[in-house]
Amino acid sequence: MAQDDIALIGLAVMGQNLILNMNDHGFVICAFNRTVSKVDDFLANEAKGTKVVGAQSLKEMVSKLKKPWRIILLVKAIQAVDDFIKKLVPLLDTGDIIIDGGNSEYRDTTRYFQDLKAKGILFVGSGVSGGEDGAPYGPSLMPGGNKEAWPYIKTIFQGIAAKVGTGEPCCGWVEEKAGHFVKMVHNGIEYGDMRLICEAYHLMRDVLGMEQSEMAQAFEEWNKMEVDSFLTEITANILKFQDNNGKYLLPKISDRAGQKGTGNWSAISTLEYGIPVALIGEAVFARCLSSLKDERIQASKKLMGPQKTQFEGDKKSFLEDIQKALYASKIISYAQGFMLLRQAAIEFGWTLNYGGITLMWRGSCIIRSVFLEKIKDAFDQNPELQNLLLDNFFKSAVENCQASWQWVVSTGVQAGIPMPCFTTALSFYNGYRHEMLPANLIQAKQDYFGAHTYELLANA
């Protein structure tokens, strides 16, 4: 008699750790992998002594499952997911469930949802965050898809998810087909957070001339303040890390940053839906610029910047200014991310619980921080909140940081430091708070050369 609660396909480190997490919570899992020998290796090593079972074929795998069959795919997006769904469909019955837990693009989630619904199979697209470390101890999970599947996976998902507060799971039903969109925005915000910290580090290193131990100490102290977060914490740890020769490792690491699809998808979505989420875009472009290492080496020998002068102000005070600029810019990043979520909800007719989404991000995921509690409070108090900047807490926070923020950006520009995310965050704030922008001149020009007509102000 079939006894297994759920199957998982894909035995890379993330898949293995998720299986072990489910096993630790009392669920019986059947493991499968395209390269079948990896199943045997996993059972003989990492899963040794557990209740995890393996299968040598998809047919054997489904035969071991309780009804309805629940199958998680943790494989590379698009081609591998397509291939496995194609192979699974002939084996499944009406009401069985396929869960895509990889980094699929949200349009693919919609495609899978519609195709499988026509065959009577329930599809769930779930964002999974927390990395290889989060998977065994409790990831952040963002499931969305066919809601009929939720009662059959809720106990498993909320059981293995990270817990915060009084034990609330960092997992809840997102909305039909929205799971991977929410994860995409999460990753876009992650790109922004990482870049903002890099810009703070650059200012500390090249403007203030701080030693690496000093920078590590600064980030440790900041991690007890408003910018307390996982990324702030690991920045301090990275800055402190020394190699076997007792030398700091960070200066030896190449300054080229790669990128995955989710950051690009976030930036593209902002253009598609006409939402000015410029900070995520600039974070992506900064990675693209970093990849031009050979060109930058040549340019550094030919292109002049400002004459380097030693910082003459109060270093301790300016360091506090950098922290405030980081905090204010971080608020803008999240405000823009939720603007994108809100617009997507309008486009697709979703009903998103923004406070609930924030709860999912409070534990295990890469952007987890104390800061998220304030965002949840803002949406709990006003579920119809149009923009985080209009919440009293965030309004006051940005106003309190504004003078420091402006000073940091202007000082960095004069020193020739690239700060695309600090700068675009401040520009967005200044644009958002202006009742009148110069776009009237754009309208007039378009009408002048193209007879596009123009729209007059209501009181004109």
Q: What are its keywords?
A:
2 domains, single chain, N-(1-d-carboxylethyl)-l-norvaline Dehydrogenase, domain 2, 460 residues, Rossmann fold, alpha/beta, seven-stranded mixed sheet, 9 strands, two-stranded antiparallel ribbon
Task: Characterise the protein shown here.
- The chain is α/β, with parallel strands linked by helices and 460 residues long.
- The chain folds into 2 domains: 6-176, NAD(P)-binding Rossmann-like Domain (Rossmann fold), CATH 3.40.50; 183-432, N-(1-d-carboxylethyl)-l-norvaline Dehydrogenase, domain 2 (Orthogonal Bundle), CATH 1.10.1040.10.
- It has 19 helices and 9 strands.
- The protein has helices at residues 13-24, 37-44, 58-63, 79-88, 106-118, 131-137, 150-160, 179-206, 212-222, 230-240, 261-272, 278-290, 293-302, 315-348, 354-360, 371-381, 392-414, 420-432, 439-450, and strands at 6-9, 29-32, 53-54, 70-73, 97-100, 122-129, 140-145, 163-164, 168-169.
- The strands form 2 sheets. Strands 3-2-1-4-5-6-7 form a 7-stranded mixed β-sheet, sandwiched between helices. Strands 8-9 form a two-stranded antiparallel ribbon.
- Strand 2 (29-32), helix 2 (37-44) and strand 3 form a beta-alpha-beta unit.
- The termini are far apart.
- The mean pLDDT is 93.
Number of helical elements: 19
Main sheet properties = 7 strands, mixed
Query: Can you count the beta strands?
Result: 9
Radius of gyration: 25 Å
- Could you name the CATH homologous superfamily of the largest domain? N-(1-d-carboxylethyl)-l-norvaline Dehydrogenase, domain 2
Distance between the termini: 78 Å
Top-tier CATH class of the largest domain? Mainly Alpha
Proportion of residues in extended strands: 5-15%
Mean pLDDT: 93
